[in-house]
Amino acid sequence: MIALVNVEGSPLSDVADLTIPLRAGPELSVAATKSFIASLTAIAHLVAEWTEDDALRAGLAALPAQLEAAWRQDWSAALPTLKAATNMYVVGRGGGFGAAREAALKLKETCGLHAEAFSTAEVRHGPMALVKTDFPVLMLAQSDVTRDDAEDLASAFAARGAKVMLSGHPGDPRVINLPTTAGHPLLEPILLIQSFYGLAARLSVARGYDPDQPPYLNKVTETV
User: Fold this and answer.
1) What secondary structure, in 3-state letters, does the chain show?
2) Less CB within 10 Å around the terminal CB: N or C of the chain?
3) What pLDDT score was predicted for residue 223?
């Protein structure tokens, strides 16, 4: 078993056959963020080496600077829609689906907002029935073969009167643009979640929460 750990010498690292230390520094916030990004980056690095993918290796070399740029992206256009929201969807596809699930979790944890994550495929079935006028939908789309499907779905949501927020420049003027930082398509979800974290922090404060200390959550959860 291979374990990715931010704290070397943790119980998980003790039982693992191989430990990969993330070394992201102390994770002070209850809602972990930098250790999540470090985990994704470590996995991408493993994939690049196993597959001898030079393009992905180059993308990883450029990632630190791109993460800095992604943090500076202004997603405040989503704040008016989300400040008073009670329910919403976060939608992604491919590598972006993992980012969508992380975003939905952080919206629950830090903003007290009931957010559910779906892929662009599954949301078209039963969940689509709930999308009506002013229903918020955050879509995290990267620049790969799934992009066109995401834009088509964004337009379908907008046609129902939903408040749709899409990463990147949408072709539909009814859809809110959330600016993005370009990178290797497999790594763009990491950049998207970095930009999202800035939005989540501002949204949490706007909704009356402390994003570092969400209510009813502990840093360590013990299970029996």
Assistant:
1) CEEEECCCCCHHHHHCCEEEECCCCCCCCCCCCHHHHHHHHHHHHHHHHHHCCHHHHHHHHHHHHHHHHHHCCCCHHHHHHHCCCCEEEEEECCHHHHHHHHHHHHHHHHHCCEEEEEECCHHHCHHHHHCCCCCEEEECCCCCCCHHHHHHHHHHHHHCCCEEEEEECCCCCCCEEECCCCCCCCCHHHHHHHHHHHHHHHHHHHCCCCCCCCCCCCCCCCCC
2) C
3) 47
CA–CA separation, 142 vs 185, rounded Å? Answer: 6
pLDDT above 90 coverage of the chain, percent: 73
